[in-house]
Design a protein that fits this description.
Blueprint: E1 10-11, E2 13-20, E3 29-36, H1 41-52, E4 57-64, E5 71-80, E6 84-91, H2 92-105, E7 107-113, H3 119-124, E8 130-133, H4 140-157, H5 162-180
Parallel strand pairs: 1-6, 3-7
Antiparallel strand pairs: 2-3, 4-5, 5-6, 7-8
């Protein structure tokens, strides 16, 4: 947990995807996030530094905006191999599966790119990536409430009745979490 209030630059998500590597997380799908590092050369340096150096130290903290629980941030602070501090901005409605995957798998791959880039194309180009560990922080019960409310709202907007909304939301969340825990044959 951070010991101070900070004003940290938030980078936006360009694209997200999944990387399955038999060498990591027992072959489970790991979320991959491409961030827009335009104007943040230190993020590019941070990712590139991991190509040649051992893993670094990173501290993470989840947070929500004071005005809306739908705006979620993951703050990252690293002391090596590059000293850096930034946050990744998520929208609960748009990125709910991604956030749940990061929390459920305790990590994600961080890539940097430009608008239009896709995870698959950056992997093919052998662009750098960093596996960021996201340990349990205490945000999980807060996220579960936000997730359930978000999914119920989506189903309600699609015209489902109150009882149907609850059942559909529970089934959707269960199915999504089963995906994140699949394992590729090793």
């Amino acid at each position: 947990m951070f010991d101070r209030f900070v004003n940290i630059t938030t980078v936006s998500i360009i694209d997200d995807g999944v990387i399955i590597d038999r060498e990591w997380a027992h072959g489970r799908p790991i979320p991959a996030i491409i961030v827009d590092a335009k104007g943040r050369q230190d993020i590019v340096e941070y990712i590139n530094a991991h190509k040649m150096q051992p893993p670094g130290d990173v501290v993470v903290q989840w947070g929500t905006a004071l005005t809306s629980k739908n705006n979620i941030s993951l703050i990252l602070k690293s002391s090596r191999p590059v000293v850096i501090e930034f946050s990744i901005g998520f929208d609960a409605k748009k990125h709910h599966a991604l956030i749940d995957g990061v929390l459920g798998n305790n990590g994600f791959y961080l890539l940097e790119g430009k608008p239009g880039d896709k995870v698959s194309s950056l992997i093919e180009k052998e662009k750098g990536r960093v596996l960021i560990e996201v340990p349990t922080t205490g945000f999980e019960p807060i996220w579960d409430k936000i997730l359930r409310k978000t999914i119920k709202k989506i189903f309600k907007q699609q015209g489902l009745g109150k009882k149907q909304v609850t059942n559909a939301a529970n089934d959707y969340i269960k199915s999504m979490r089963e995906f994140w825990h699949l394992r590729k044959d090793t």
